[in-house]
Design brief:
By secondary structure, the protein is of the alpha+beta class. It is 18% helix and 25% strand. The protein is globular.
Length: 114
């Protein structure tokens, strides 16, 4: 979980518990009004995750990545493939896109009221 987000939902504990039990790589998303301020999910016509794009200049989708992630332990092996960004940091979006490229990332969309 990234440290600059707040989460609220009447059934948040139940949702997170169910996701955790799946034992698969999962990102949590939420529909937003200004997607250009977030990392957003790009999908194909079959609703399959293609990529996460950080703060897109043109509209991709309104489905923002919230900063709450669940990873399988085996995902740690992918960390060695990451390279530092222009900011000199390892980016979580790069890790998520690497997992997407292996078809091993799912998305859970928080609904209205969250």
């Amino acid at each position: 979980m990234l440290g600059d987000n707040f989460f609220y939902s009447d059934n948040l504990i139940k949702i997170l518990s169910q996701i955790s039990k799946r034992k698969e790589n999962t990102i949590i998303s939420y529909k937003v009004e200004k997607p250009e301020n977030f990392g957003v999910i790009k999908r194909n016509r079959l609703n399959k995750l293609i990529k996460i794009i950080e703060k897109p200049k043109k509209y991709i989708s309104n489905l923002a990545v919230t900063g709450l992630y669940f990873y399988e332990n085996s995902t740690l092996k992918l960390l060695s493939k990451l390279k530092k960004s222009r900011r000199g940091e390892y980016e979580i979006t790069d890790l998520n896109n690497l997992i997407i490229s292996q078809n091993k990332l799912t998305n859970f969309e928080l609904g209205r009221g969250s």
